[in-house]
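Reviewers of the previous submission asked for a worked example of the structure-prediction workflow described in the proposal, so we include one complete record here. The input consisted solely of the amino acid sequence. No template or homolog information was supplied to the procedure at any stage.
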Amino acid sequence: MPAARSARALSWIALACAAVVLVVAVAQRRDEPVGDRTVGEVTRVGVADGDDIPAYLRTAAGELAGLAAPAPGAWALVSFDAYLTPAQAAAALGGTPVSAVVARVPLPGRQTEIVRLAALRLPDDVVAGMAEVAARKDREAADYRARAAALAATAEPGLRRVYDTGAAVAAREAAAYRAACACVYAAVVRDAPDALRALAARPGVRGVDPAPEVGRLDRTVFTPPLPEQRDVARPPADNGLAAPTPGPGMGDSSEAAPTVSGSSPPGDRPPAAARPPNPAPTS
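From that input alone, the workflow returned the following structure tokens.
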């Protein structure tokens, strides 16, 4: 009997210790900070590959007409009728609070990088952002030229042509951005519904797509239609490997452009002009 009582006592002690450990673990878990459950979630605003652009603009206009009045306002994607200089974009937007603009150099028949530039102050921030992109494009062109030169003594004329083309395109992009080109075709803004509706009626504004669902810009992808896209958002096209005609002039392109996140091709990967096209442009 004493042995049985001793065993039961030990069992109760073990259970009590286990309960204490469990309580402590629960208390510590409650003290741990809760992680951001939205990590990995991305909000998309704009057109997708294959979308009917007139239908997109009509839908955006309908949503804008019915937009309620949140505080302190709703984010919206503004698309322009044409490529604008930083000063022209500032005039088109008036006093609307702007977060960023979307731009590309519209080289005829060429895929060019789509860039999103911070633009809290127009046009100064956009001009400064373009200067930074121009410096990166200079480095990109130099990298392509170095790769082409390294192939001069080899039997790879096709790859060398690819690098020569990449150098020519990057150099023209650099020259355009350095001159504060007419390259801006969209903007990300935030304002009250009435102000956004007034913005949609301003000259040069093609459409205002309200996005009250956007909570964080760093987890939002904006895909505005290019000014030359009038019917359907199509995959980008390119005229091939022939180097673009040199010269400072730029014309309207009938193709979309891919978004490029890197500055120079790693290893011996061909530049964007020679790779298969990406889907519709993103920010």
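The radius of gyration is 27 Å. We consider this example representative of the routine output the project will generate in years two and three.
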